[in-house]
Amino acid sequence: MKKINKKSKQFGIIIEGTQNIQGKEQEVICVRYVNNYFEIEDVLGIYNIDSTTGKSLCQLILDVILCLQLLIQTLRCQTYDGAANMAGKHRGCQAVIKKIQPLAQYVHCGAHVSQLIAKSVQQASFIKNVPDFVNELGKLYSTSEKFKHAYLSQYDEENEVSLPRSLKPVCHTR
What we know:
By secondary structure, the chain is an alpha/beta fold. The chain has 2 domains: about 1-120, Nucleotidyltransferase, domain 5, CATH 3.30.420; about 125-174, no CATH class. Helices cover about 45% and strands about 25% of the residues. It has 8 helices and 5 strands; from the N terminus they run αβββαβααβαααα. It has helices spanning about 1-10, 55-65, 85, 95-100, 110-125, 125-130, 130-145, 145-155; strands at about 10-20, 25-35, 40-50, 75-80, 105-110. Strands 3-2-1-4-5 form a 5-stranded mixed beta sheet. The relative contact order is 0.11.
C-alpha cells in the first residue's frame, strides 16, 4: 500500500458484501489506484461484520484505511451497490465518508448497475418475445415465396449493414 501513498497519491475504495455459508455477513474491501499509468485493483481483505448500517460499514472502511496506513485525505472514490445502507444520502456509508472526506465521490458499482439493467430488460415483454418473433420470421421465410422475395430485395451488396441471405427458424433448445 506504500505504492498508493508514494506513487499514486490518490485511491478509490470498492466494497461488496455477502453472507458466508454460515450466514455471517462479510465485506470484501478493494482499492483501486493508478501506478505507472496502469490501473491497479487490489483486494485488501475479507472482513466479518456484525452490523451492516452505513455507520458501521464506514467505521470498517476507516479502520482498514488506518491499519494499512493509507491517508483518508487521498481517498477520491467510493464504489458500492445502491442499497440504502451504502448509498443513502444522509446515513449511508457514502454520506458518512463524504462528511470526513468531501472529495471522495460516490459511484454506483458498474456490475450492480449492469445486473439491474439486465433484470429490467429480462422482465420487458417485448424482449421476452424476440425469440418467438425471430422464429416466426424464419417460418414465414421458409414457407412464403412472396416474403422471401421482399426480404431479399432489401439485401444490398453496397449497404453497410449486411443482412443474412436467409432467415431460419430458431432452434427450440435455445
